[in-house]
Amino acid sequence: MRTVIQRVQKASVSIDGSLRAAIRGGLLLLVGFEEADTETDLQWMAKKVVNMRIFNDDDGVMNRSLEEVGGEVLVVSQFTLHASTKKGNRPSYMRAAKPETAIPLYERFIAILKKNYELPVQTGVFGADMQVSLINDGPVTIIIDSQNKNL
Questions:
Q1: How many domains does the chain have?
Q2: pTM
Q3: Is residue 80 among the annotated active site residues?
Q4: Could you tell me if 42 and 97 are in contact, meaning their C-beta atoms sit under 8 angstroms apart?
Q5: Of the candidates 15, 37, 117, 144, which lies 20 to 30 Å from 150 by C-alpha distance?
Q6: More confident residue, 132 or 149
Q7: Which residues are bridge partners to 64 per DSSP?
Q8: Is residue 66 situated within a structural domain?
Q9: SS3 letters across 73-87
Q10: CATH number (domain holding residue 69)
Q11: Alpha-carbon span 59 to 57, nearest angstrom
């Protein structure tokens, strides 16, 4: 599972010109899955994201977690996070999980965030053509891959 974490002042997702979801302050999570991902990856990623200390404390130091600041989460599926650009100019998405694998992983990840952390969680629509708007706060953008925890 690969996740791009963006600390945002606000973020939203629209589909066909209609607002689907919006948050004010928190994290926009762009998530992509591969066939090798398991429940362990989902649990690890959820814990990592929620506990990451990337929000400012009273001294302006990134020392607080999402839970500590009472932030919201917007989760958007993005298979292109697993693009391979090794050969040629057209990315390959062979590593991205097929929908029959990715959809249950996506839904389970959202359920983990809601149940285990009791956070306000909004979502895009898996596989939809979405327009994502955000005001990146900082900017703070972090990439995490559950298959390569050393990054």
A1: 1
A2: 0.94
A3: yes
A4: no
A5: 117
A6: 132
A7: 55
A8: yes
A9: EEEEECHHHHCECCC
A10: 3.50.80.10
A11: 5
Would you say residue 44 lies in a domain?
A: yes
Distance CA 52, CA 146 (A): 14
Residue 40 lies in a domain: yes
Tens digits of residue pLDDT in 37-58: 999 999 999 999 999 999 999 9
Query: Which entry of 3, 38, 40, 80 is annotated as an active-site residue?
Result: 80
Residue 2: strand pairing partners = 32, 145
* CA gap 76, 29 in Å, rounded: 6
How far lies 64's CA from each of 3, 52, 93, 96, 119, in Å?
20, 8, 35, 32, 15
Local confidence band at 151 (pLDDT 50, 70, 90 cut-offs):
low
Residue 16: pLDDT over 80: yes
Residue 150 lies in a domain: no
pLDDT over 90, % of the chain: 85
- Token output for 40: 């362990």
Containing structural domain, residue 64: 2-145
- Token pair 């953008």 is at which residue? 141
The CA-to-CA distance between both ends of the chain, in Å, stands at 13
